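Hi W., the adenosine-5'-diphosphate complex you wanted:
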Amino acid sequence: MYDVWQNVLAEIEQQISAANFSTWFQDTSLISTDNNRIIIGVKNSFYVKQLRARYLDLISTALRNNNIKVENIDFEVQSIPKLKSRSREIVKSPKQITERIKTIKTRASSTENHNNGLNNKYTLDNFVIGSNNELAVAAAKSIIASPGTRYNPFFLYGGPGLGKTHLVQAIGNELIKNNPDYKIFYTPISHFYSDFIDAIQSGKGKDFNRKFQKLDCLIIDDFQFIVNKEKSQEEFFNIFNDLYQLNKQIIVTSDRLPSQIKTVDERLASRLTWAGAFDLQLPKFEDKCAILRAKAELMGVDIEPEAIEYIAENVNTNIRDLEGEFSTILLMSEVRGLTPLELIKNGSVNVSRASKLRPVSSKQAVEKVAKYYNLATKDLQSKSRVSNIKNARQVAMYILSKELNLSTNKIASEVGVKDHTTVMHGIKKIEKDLKLNFALRDQIEEIKEKIYG
Ligand code: ADP
Ligand code: MG
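Structure:
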């Protein structure tokens, strides 16, 4: 069994990046192939989800290529003795770390492709899938497989530093990889405007328009910066409509829904979310760990698992900050000649001071939800089953869980319900509704703004 799995792994290793291979496959094993039911051993349940989402096809193909019949694949969590990962050399010499960072940095900065705005350092391969982004990634994959169809336009929104640019650039890069003739243009909306104004002023307005009409895919980043100049907005709207009618793929990112951007024309706002709106949320603890592990692999540095967990636990703002803290610790490790964990243990790093979200109490959060729905807090916490009150109560449960990370038991007592199963049900209900109910999404975004604002 061991040998077969080694062969399967060797094949998988050929297909994906070294970073992904060691992150996701390093501690896997083949437990059973009885009755063509394959059971693969993994470290923890987080890996089950990732492997299923990203690599199921790849694994089955590799198994079949090694003459193993596959009917279905299951994963089983096996606790691997901690010693195993510890026995690796923990941290390379500080000098080696700096060298690695340097090479990665030069590689990253020299990879921008000219003309189309894409930067090939952003790939789908190095985008870690987690509960915070899995729906958006599923849509992205569908677009890569058949652009200009189901998710057109693709509207992706979420706070700063959560991966919007990375994901849409990755879509562009994959599309080009599949078809090098595919004409893509990526631009932040602010550049779109300055280019438009330049074109008009130099009498080349028509050329500007023609350039866009030839595209197969237009990616507009940071749409929230759209300006309220009638003419430029109209130009964007025209280009949008032309491309849309020709079934060309349009991709737009923004930090919020179009309906929340005051300067946007209503028709344009509604059109942008015609095919739905996908959001990127704050990563959970295990998502953050996975991202840091992937980054460490990519940079070729070994960092103690406890150090990764410490950073993941303490950076609660966004992924950009997570990466920032990570690089700071690596550099500090170089300067002081201590490993990241040693630095943490001796108190030299204090991540939590810098980057925690402004703390909000659960009481404040519940009050804001009640107020938003024009209810008294005590009504929200009552036993009433009137539908608007029940809905507000469930939104409160959702927010306490997603934003404040409270346990279901704690949430139950905050919103006045008896037991935690009611809370679980309430959160699930909102999660399900959010997939289709855009008004509800808007409401929750607005409530969050009120809570943090
Ligand atoms: P946004 O455009 O939403 O502000 P970015 O796409 O610029 O955010 O992401 C910020 C940083 O975090 C980038 O360096 C990006 O590569 C990284 N990042 C975001 N999401 C992920 C992810 N899921 N996996 C790996 N890296 C990520
Ligand atoms: Mg961005």
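Residues 2-77 form a domain with the GMP Synthetase; Chain A, domain 3 fold (CATH 3.30.300.180).

W.
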